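User: Show me a protein chain along with its predicted structure.
Assistant: Here is one chain, sequence first, then structure tokens.
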Amino acid sequence: MSYTLIFTDSYKKRAKRFAKKHPELAGQYRKVLYLLKENPQYPSLRLHLLKGQLQDVHSVSINMSYRITLELLIIEKEIILINIGSHDDVY
């Protein structure tokens, strides 16, 4: 029951900047993407739906400081990655 991760062009740019700024998180980031693809509900991801202006967007945690925001399309089994960064950056 694998999901398809969709990396938008804007997400790729943000992820590249994030990786350059935080090379120490490369392993955690890869693990998050793997878990997201295999099971978005995996507990350590802390998947949750956001509120307010981002009410149709979900968030997962890379660690306690950094997040990935995404659209989760369960019907089509697709996950569209939107943003990556610190809590303040992505919210």
